[in-house]
Every structure is written in structure tokens, then in C-alpha cells.
Amino acid sequence: MKLRALLLGLVVLIVASFWSLDLQWAAFFSGAALASMGRFVAEFWPPDVSPAFLAKLLPAAWETLAMSALGTLLAAGLGLLIALPAASGGLGRPGARALLNALRAIPELVWASLLIILAGLGPFAGTLALAVHTAGVLGRLFADALENAPPLAATTLRQQGAGAVQVFAYATLPTVLPQLLSYTLYRWENNIRAAAVLGVVGAGGLGQMLAFHMGLFHMNKTASVLAAMLLLVALVDGLSVWTRRALTR
Fold it and tell me: How many CB atoms lie within 10 A of CB 232?
């Protein structure tokens, strides 16, 4: 009965969304719109691969990769610290859950705009913005993973007289570690794209180059920046797949 009510409510929400939004499908798929889009896409070819531009692109790509990696690493550590009380049944659970909600409710772009005031323009503010927002996301995922961990190993250690730290280190953490790593690697992939967006507010990396060249309609250079972003995402995705396979062997 509850499932039927949930599905009915979901259908009503979808129908109401289509009815309330001004979706102009006819204009979207019109010949004029498709022709304009075709001309716009054609301007991206060929990408700028001149040595002078690549000399600027490669350091920006490295800066974006470093921002995303360091931001994700900081977020994983902070998220795990908050996830521990959020997954417990103690008095700190509501406060930890509320903190995680607050961290991930504010987008990275807003965090970057706020942190730029403190840290100034550049990758430092972007890295902190990624870390703060991603900590809220990973903390929630980590807390759910800890709550759903099989209790047998932890119960066995408690019966042998092990303390809370020992139970977590030798029973709970090894059980959920592959899942935590999978979440972290996935968020690292997302943070590469987010780091590019943060460049719009001056947080450095490929995003800053993308905003600059798109603003000046340098489409060939924009295509090269987009290609670099795609390569970074593919690199992290391949690393994620390899890590998951290695953990499941």
C-alpha cells in the first residue's frame, strides 16, 4: 500500500513538472535551432594544439587535477570524522547529520565565492570549496555504509573484550573500506568537473581558462580545454575501475 502511494505520488510529481514548465520542444528541435547549433559546434574544430597554447594548458590541467585530488582527500578525512557520530546512536547523531546536510546543501560555487574572500583568488580557495562540499556528500555516504555494515565481526570482537577503537579498526572499517574507496573515487571524478566550474569565479585551473576563452569566443582554444577535461575524467574513471577490481580480487 505504501509503495503504491509512493509510486502514485511520483507520477503526479512528474506530470505536474511537465505541466508547470514552459518546455518549448518544437522550438528546440526546429530547423533554425539545429542549424545554429551546427554552426556553433563547427567553430570548435580544429582544436588549438599549438605549442604556445599547450604550454599554458598542461599546467592548468595539472592544477585542476591537483585541486580535485587534494580536495577529495581532505573531504574523505573530514567526512569520515563526521560520519562516525552520524552513524552512531548517541546524542551526537542529530548534530552530525545536520552538519552534513549543511555542508552538501551549499554548492561548490557558493563555497568558492565565500572562501575567495578569505583565501583570495586561486586554487587554494577552489580546493577548500571542493573539500567542504564533498565532505558533506562523502560523510553522508560513509555514515550509511557504516550503519549497514554486517555486525557479526564487530559483535565477535566486543564479546572478546575489544574496545570501540579496536572494533572499528579491525572489524567495521575493513568490511566497508572497499565501499568507502569506491565512493571517494567517484567523487574525485565529479570534483574534476566541479573544479573546472570553480574557475568561473577565479579558482584557477582549466575552469579559469575555459571561462576566459569562452568569454572571448576563442572556440578552438575552448575545444582544447574541454578535451583536457575529458582526458582527466577518463583517467580518474580508469583508475577507479582498476582500484575496484584490485579490491575485489
Answer: 21
Confidence (pLDDT) at 228 = 87
Amino acid at 35: A
Burial 121-132 (b: 16+ CB within 10 A, else e): ebbbbbbbbbbb
Rounded to whole angstroms, the Cα distance separating 71 from 66 reads 8
The whole-angstrom separation of Cα 220 and Cα 52 is 14
Nearest-angstrom CA–CA distance, 64 and 195: 6
Residue 246 has φ and ψ, to the nearest 5°, of -65, -35
Q: Which pLDDT does position 73 carry in this prediction? A: 92
Quick one: how far is CA 23 from the chain centroid?
29
Rg of the chain, C-alpha, whole Å: 23
- Report residues of the chain scoring pLDDT below 50: none
The Cα 189–Cα 229 span in angstroms is: 11
172-200 as b/e: b if 16+ CB within 10 A = beebbeebbbbbbbbbbbbbbbbbbbbbb
pLDDT by residue (tens digit) across 33-42?
A: 788 888 877 8
User: Are 108 and 194 in contact, with CB atoms under 8 Å apart?
Assistant: yes
Give, for 118, the enclosing helix (H) or strand (E): helix 108-119
Say how far apart CA 204 and CA 216 lie, in whole Å. 18
The predicted model scores a pTM of 0.77
Query: Which grid cell sits at 138?
Result: 562523502
> Contact, 137 vs 187, CB < 8 A?
yes
Exposed (0-12), middle (13-18) or buried (19+): which is 1, by Cβ within 10 Å? Answer: exposed
Report d(CA 79, CA 83) in Å as an integer: 6
